[in-house]
Amino acid sequence: MIGVDFSPFQNFQNSISESEFLLFSDYIKKNSGIVIPREKAYLIETRLSKLMADTGTDSFSEFYKYLSSKSDPSLHQKIINAMTTNETLWFRDDAPWKVLEKITLPKLVGDLASGKKMRARIWCSAVSTGQEVYSTVMCVDNYLNKNPVKGVDLSKFDFFATDISSRVLDIAKKGRYDAISIMRGLSDYYKSKYFIKDGSAWEIDPKIRNAVRFSQYNLQDSYHIFGMFDIIFCRYVLIYFSDQQKKEIIAKMSDILIDGGLLFTGNYVLYELFEKDFDSHYYANLTYYSKRDNVQPEPSSEIKAVVK
Q1: Domains along the sequence of the chain with CATH
Q2: Looking at the predicted structure, is the pLDDT value of residue 228 above 50?
Q3: Taking the CA atoms of the chain, what radius of gyration do you get in angstroms?
Q4: Most buried residue among 1, 126, 201, 210 by CB atoms closer than 10 A?
């Protein structure tokens, strides 16, 4: 992180003043949950300058007035799209999918085969351009192919993927990736098994793409409409929220995880957020969490079966 004296904002040629930074940082936090610290004010300047120019305004103050006037209904989403960070790759860090293969899927598949569980449900909560959720579907499908169990196939799993950015969701839904994106973390094994080259792009197997339900969603909103999950991926997104927002998001995720359900957050440890409702587990360099069996969610009439 680069330290900068932001009292006069001199390092940015005064193109964004402190008062303008506060206006936009508050707006972004309110509408997306993303916290922009003062030392990263340049993100607002660099990512929103083109949108400002497109509106014909000459300063961030004028741009904010234009935004507040609601003259362009689509501008809000454009700002959210611009300010979200969408770094992602296939099987990022590898360990979460090793946990699925070696620890989680054997039990889930056994419960499905015995009738103890009718469906297994997995939510990728900040899916970006789709690599995380498609990695998960491929992992599950590959496991089922290698460990066939009568009556259990991919149709027994629900994969739900959300993101606040409409731009990245549009890419994810297509399941089509350029040569650079396809190289980032994807092994030759998975590429040859689940992708077809189409011109200069690589297209994912329709079976994998069609297994996922995508939806635009803000993590600040209620989760009860989603129903209950066995596994939640919330990887590398909590770092963009305030401490209070982190606590609220973790509490809401606890409410919609079944007893023993898993939560993956990324390769950083936030013990204080999980000590109330979760137990910590370790695999290689990964810390992940399971909901304690004695933690009961509050009953809610909002809980529904599956988001269509």
Answers
A1: 10-83 (1.10.155.10), 95-291 (3.40.50.150)
A2: yes
A3: 21
A4: 126
